[in-house]
# Entry
Amino acid sequence: MRILLDTSYFLPLIKVQITEISGKILQKLLKNSKFEIYYCDITLFEMAAKGTKLVLSGEQLKITDLQIGIDALENDPRITRISWSKHPFTLDLAFSLRKIHADYIDCLILATAVCYTDIFATLDDEFYKLILKNPLVIQEILEINDHFQFWFGDLSKNPKGLK
# Structure
């Protein structure tokens, strides 16, 4: 099963703890042989932006923590990087998603997940709720990937589809 993880799941790599999930969740996923783990290349930018903001605000994060975490993600052979710009439908879907969601980076990451993987793991269940209220967006997602699912939070519950 191919799973694209949202940026939040990689933030522990740069020593940023997310209260909704365990810092060990990535390790658990990587140990499970039924999962292939992916990330969108724009996640590297998002990690750098969030990490830099924390470094500049005087948090306990250092620029070396950020560099080490990004290197760890880029160089782990168990995690595959996917480019948002390579699939012919990614930009069209991201554009449709942007009509209902304000964060374009989130739209690109989700569109990449739809185009390349089976499941998108995210903390953002509000985005999913917005999609459920928009039949045209649901239709567009299902035309690209008719079995696509969302998996939320600590991944303890089953993934949810759009049908």
Notes: The beta strands are 2-5, 36-40, 79-82, 119-122, 149-152, 160-161. The chain has a mean pLDDT of 95. The helical segments are 25-31, 42-56, 63-75, 90-98, 104-116, 125-132, 135-144. DSSP finds seven helices and six strands in the chain.
